[in-house]
Amino acid sequence: MSLRRIAAPDAIERLAEFSAVIDARSESEFAEDRLPGAVNWPSLTDAERIVVGTQYRHESPFAARKQGAVLVARNIARHIEREVQALERDWRPLVYCWRGGQRSGALATVLDQIGFSVQVLEGGYRDFRRAVIADIETRPGALDLRVVCGRTGSGKSRLLQALREAGAQVLDLEALACHRGSVLGPMPGVAQPSQKGFETALWQALRAFGGQRPVFVEGESRTIGRLRVPEPLLERLRAAPVLHLEMPLEARVALLMEDYAHFVDDVDSLCSRLLALRELRGAATVERWQIAARAGDIADVVRGLLAEHYDPIYERSMQRNFAGFADAVPLALADGSPAVLAAAARQLAG
Question: Which of 97, 149, 178, 271 is catalytic?
Answer without folding.
Answer: 97
